[in-house]
Amino acid sequence: MIKNFENFENFDGFEINFHEKSERIINIQILDEIIDRLIFPFKKFDITTLEYKPFTRFTIAQSLDDTTSGKLSSFLNLILRDRDTGCFIIGPKNYSSKTDNNFLIKLATAVTHLIGNPNHDAMAGKYYARFHVKHEDNSDSYLRKAYVNMDLHTDGTYVREKTDWLLMQKMEEKNVDGGETALLHLDDWEHLEELSNDPVGKESFIWGSPKSKNINYKVEHPVFSQDKHGKPEISYIDQFPEPKNMKQGLFLQKLSDALEGSKKIIVTPLQVGCSVVANNYFWLHGRKPFVENKNLSRELLRIRGSFFTN
Fold this sequence. Notes:
Blueprint: E1 14-19, E2 22-30, H1 32-43, H2 47-52, H3 54-66, H4 71-81, E3 87-92, H5 101-112, E4 116-118, E5 129-134, E6 150-153, E7 165-174, E8 181-185, H6 192-196, E9 205-207, E10 219-221, E11 224-226, E12 232-234, E13 241-242, H7 246-260, E14 266-268, E15 275-279, E16 283-287, E17 297-307
Parallel strand pairs: 2-3
Antiparallel strand pairs: 1-2, 3-15, 4-17, 5-17, 6-16, 7-15, 7-17, 8-14, 8-16, 9-10, 9-13, 11-12
Helix pairs in contact: 3-5
């Protein structure tokens, strides 16, 4: 699987291992000694400063990387760019009062700025977005629909910005049953060869978005393309394509059914404080429905962006 993984298993202050359900996913748990080392440099900048001064985000990213003498950044990029892996889960091993929401925002910022530059999130007007999932919802997106399955998808389908990777962090939750994270690596999908080679999937599709996304344009691109090695990549979400004709509509239905019916989907709970970080071209992600509870509450943070080019 991952190249030279054995060289990174013994970072002082980190516990690193394969996910119990897939060796494509690397678990990275940050121990208390590292959390304690990060508290002081993270306090140097408040959240507003990070939002208004982009260079400060790189300063706290450097503080995180310094805890491993610069090895963590190399490791994270190695995981995400490797087609055999492409995903890691990272966060404090012990969630506590030290790892409050401000700390978690800074941790997510530090992690992503070791990988690349975040896109502007038009929904939030910042480089990140925070949103709640609750019992009642009047939004125009599946993102906040607690009792509806969020089908497998990739991010950035409806924007012009390049979206190489995404981070989804669970900041807090209360009275939650269900709502597990769903993940599918494209190469594990039973129907990849059939559907990625379907000529319709390589046609130009129109992609729009609901008003809450604050995007006033539409884009066009195919569902399937190829990377530099000729392997399939996917850009797809069920809610936003606008089929031009019957054959596109029926292709999307077939694609949706084949994704949601896959037996290779990884369903896993995510600990509060932890983030899933995935390559957006060959990992699809979603969420299982919650069990109904009028007091249900979950807060998530999202950052997505492009890899550094240098």
